[in-house]
Structures are given as C-alpha cells and as structure tokens.
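Sequence only, no structure available. Ideas?
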Amino acid sequence: MADILIIEDEESILMALEDDLTIEGYSVETATDGQTGLSAASKKRFDLLILDIMLPIINGFDVCKKLRASGVTTPIIMLTARGHEVDRVLGLELGADDYVTKPFSPRELLARIKAILRRVNQTRQAEDLISFGAVEVDFRKYEIKKSGKSVYLTSLEFSLLKFLIDNSDRALSRNDILDGVWGNDVHVFDRTVDTHIGHLRKKIEDNPDKPLHILSVRGLGYRFSRQ
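Reply:
I predicted one. Tokens follow.
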C-alpha cells in the first residue's frame, strides 16, 4: 500500500482526492497549507506527494524547492489552475515529476499516480551497478556518485537515467522516452523530456553544454553512451 500526501487548500478538491485515493487502496494524509505540508513531507517518507501551487503561507513552488534542497526524493505531482507553460516548466525545473492542470479528470490523475508509482517500484527493484566516466550508479541502493561524491537525483531522474542506460547506444525519440519513463497512459509534452535531460546533464556531465554521455540526436531525441 502506497502512502500519499495531498497538499491542497481547496476543501472540495481535497476531499474528493482523499476519497478517490482511499477507495483505490492508498493510505492518504492531507495538509491544507504549504507550511504544514512541508513539515509533514520532511518528517515522514511518503511514496508520492500531490502538491497544489497556490497554497497559503508557502506556495507549492517553494515547498517543492525546499523539499528537493533538503534531499527529499519523493515523487511530486503538482496541481495548478494556471495554463501557462512557464508554470509547468518552472515546476519541473524545481524538481516536480509531473503536473496536472485544473480542472482535471480524476481518472487522468489516477493514471499518472499509478504510472509514477510503477516507475519508482521498477527502479527500486533494479539490481544493476553501472559506471561510466567518473559516474557510478547503484540502483540497488538508489545512489549515484560522481568522482566519489554523492549526486542528488529525483526519483524521475533515476528512472530516466536507467531507461537511457538500458538503451545505451540506441537513438531514442522523445516519444520513446516518454513511453518508457512516463508510460503511454500518461500525457506529457516533448518539452518535459528536454527539461529533465537538461537536469541530468547538469548533474552527471563534466560540461553539460558538451555532453559525453547523454547525446542529442538531431531531429529525433537522445542517445546514451557509456564511453
């Protein structure tokens, strides 16, 4: 049974989400402001956070930023009433794994939740110990080191890196990556792939502008090289 924390100040949405997820068999806790939610997510290890952007006291962007800065890797789905791309991109850049725009379909949100939890479970069950360049990845321990120093990756970044590694030297389209990492039952944009690829490059490449491992394939997508 997965533990899910919902941080949402709109009572109708909060109650509906809590009821739907409880019926699905999830253990659910709730918070109605950013400060309370941040405290709860920092003290207990949840399997997933559902985080609204427009929250009292501390907004969702700052909650996400503070959690990632403190080393919390719990997957985060952000909820936003805004349709502007800049908000979606900012959420991803701060470390969110996915986003849903209000009003949303409960079925769509549930599909995204299941896809993320399935991806995290697959990554945690992996038994590969892989190295390339100065980077060592231990999927059993859910750890990555570069030149002997620990590198922080979100759960989605771990899953993305593993997918790239599993398909080493194969040219992957953005759709290939979306289906392999996010799942074909979840709708996200090509820009999402580019954003997370950029995050990975900054963390594992010596020079993100001239990557040696996560390579761009013009007109298609990306290719991973261990050399």
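The radius of gyration is 17 Å.
Hope that gets you unstuck.
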